[in-house]
Specification:
The complex is a heterodimer of chains A (275) and B (151).
Chain A lengths: L12 H17 L2 E5 L2 E5 L1 H13 L6 H26 L3 H6 L1 H6 L5 H13 L5 H6 L5 H11 L4 H31 L4 H7 L5 H14 L4 H43 L13
Antiparallel strand pairs in A: 1-2
Helix pairs in contact in A: 1-2, 3-12, 6-12, 8-9, 9-11, 10-12, 11-12
Chain B lengths: L2 H26 L3 H24 L6 H13 L6 H8 L4 H16 L3 H6 L2 H29 L3
Helix pairs in contact in B: 1-2, 1-5, 2-3, 2-4
Classes of the chains: A mainly alpha (275), B mainly alpha (151).
């Protein structure tokens, strides 16, 4: 292996050794299945690795320095996954193009977020935070949009940041457990779920499509190819979906449902470009 | 483009690739040397995408270039398709995913204080946000795929 060349390239060796050990331990534990009623929950090495990594952060083994060094490496390690997805999509390209209409239209599925989460947020007593929380899946481009429109310290801004933090911390683990389980209890085709895993977050897509592929090993390559294509599409269109559809629809539904569900406690939304 | 950056990418890609090769052997019983050519191909595709994103002035994310290069190299018209697919099939997707989430687990420790400050209601709504988009997309995909007669 290459040694340090000059002093400009610095590598946090401790971080990589810890990750290597985590990979050895978690891959040795392997994949385990838990049956829950008619469904299956898959426990994958990547999920143990994420949880153990988080646990290690609170020990003396790794600290702030390793956590900071790990951040840019997540993106770099995801490039391998994207390359792998690329070579899975290539041979399946005719099939994926044939499914283009489904692939494009399912992008509107994130409106399901508004229909499901917005009423619940109102019932739980959230005010204008609701709009930030439920207009989209709350990843980086969506945080940027809300902060741009309402400001960082607005209730809407706090809302989207809350979803961002929960997604960062729990998203991959939750989707890894939930995606495969839903696919085993609902009568929808695995390819439909595969497309649905492309929600615009690399780590959530990885965990969700990985668990789907493990539940349906005979369709694994198709599942990963469709999931990857969908995630690339969401990465490209997600922001515009929020601007033109998600945010207007969340704002409208907030105005319509808010007074009914919250009565006198309802707060009308912030005026745009104001804090 | 700074040469430092380039060297750093190569070094880190090698480190990540070696870690994933070890995981690929332990978790999926693929001998390390057998999967090495496939891993090298994936690493070179990644590197090419990272460099393209840096040198082409249009704002387009490196992951999009990487995905595109992978697709172009293996689409039916490509003369390299068969050999690249054969080599890279030795590298399991799940083996590549484990190091990603190990790094992510260590990095998210920094968000723990923010997370703890949130109440259960915010966590519940956030999980419903993820469930909503997942099920919403799956239902739409199912309807369209059935109308098209694909499934």
């Amino acid at each position: 292996m290459e040694q340090k060349k000059g002093s400009s390239v610095r590598v946090n060796w401790k971080l990589h050794v810890v990750v290597l050990l985590l990979v050895i331990i978690t891959e040795a534990i392997g994949i385990h299945k838990i049956s829950v009623g008619p469904g299956i929950i898959l426990l994958l090495p990547m999920l143990y690795a994420m949880i153990l990594g988080l646990v290690l952060y609170f020990t003396r083994v790794v600290g702030e320095g390793e956590a900071t060094a790990a951040e840019p490496i997540i993106i770099l390690s995801i490039t391998y996954l994207i390359a792998k997805i690329g070579v899975l999509i290539g041979p399946n390209l005719p099939k994926i193009i044939a499914a283009g209409p489904a692939l494009i239209l399912q992008e509107f599925g994130n409106l399901g977020t508004i229909l499901l989460a917005l009423p619940v947020a109102l019932l739980l007593g959230f005010g204008r935070e609701t709009i930030g929380m439920t207009h989209s899946v709350g990843r980086e481009p969506n945080v940027g949009l809300i902060v741009d429109v309402y400001g960082f310290n607005s209730p809407e801004g706090r809302g989207v940041l809350a979803v961002y933090v929960v997604g960062t911390l729990l998203g991959a683990i939750f989707m890894g457990l939930f995606a495969g389980f839903m696919a085993t209890i609902l009568p929808l085709h695995p390819l439909s779920f595969a497309m649905a895993t492309g929600i615009g977050s690399g780590s959530m897509m990885t965990a969700a499509s990985g668990s789907l592929a493990a539940v349906f090993p005979e369709m694994a390559d198709d599942i990963l190819a469709f999931a990857g294509a969908s995630n690339l599409l969401t990465t490209a269109t997600g922001l515009y979906m929020s601007i033109f559809i998600g945010l207007p629809m969340a704002t409208w539904l907030y105005r319509v449902l808010g007074p009914r569900l919250q009565g006198a406690r309802f707060q009308p939304e912030s005026r745009r470009e104001e804090r | 483009m700074a040469l430092d950056k380039w060297q750093e990418w190569v070094l880190l890609l090698i480190i990540i690739g070696v870690i994933a090769l070890v995981g690929n052997q332990i978790g999926f019983d693929v001998p390390l040397l057998e999967a090495l050519p496939g891993m090298a191909i994936l690493g070179l595709i990644s590197l090419a995408g990272l460099i393209l994103a840096k040198v082409i002035p249009v704002k387009f994310p490196s992951v999009a270039y990487i995905g595109l290069i992978g697709i172009l190299l293996t689409m039916p018209a490509s003369p390299f398709a068969d050999s690249i697919v054969a080599y890279t099939s030795k590298v399991q997707f799940l083996a590549l995913a484990t190091p990603v989430l190990a790094y992510a687990g260590i990095a998210i420790g920094k968000s723990w204080a923010d997370f703890r400050a949130l109440g259960w209601r915010a966590i519940l709504v956030s999980l419903l946000v993820l469930i909503g988009t997942y099920l919403g997309s799956a239902v739409i995909a199912e309807i369209v795929l059935r109308i098209q007669g694909i499934i």
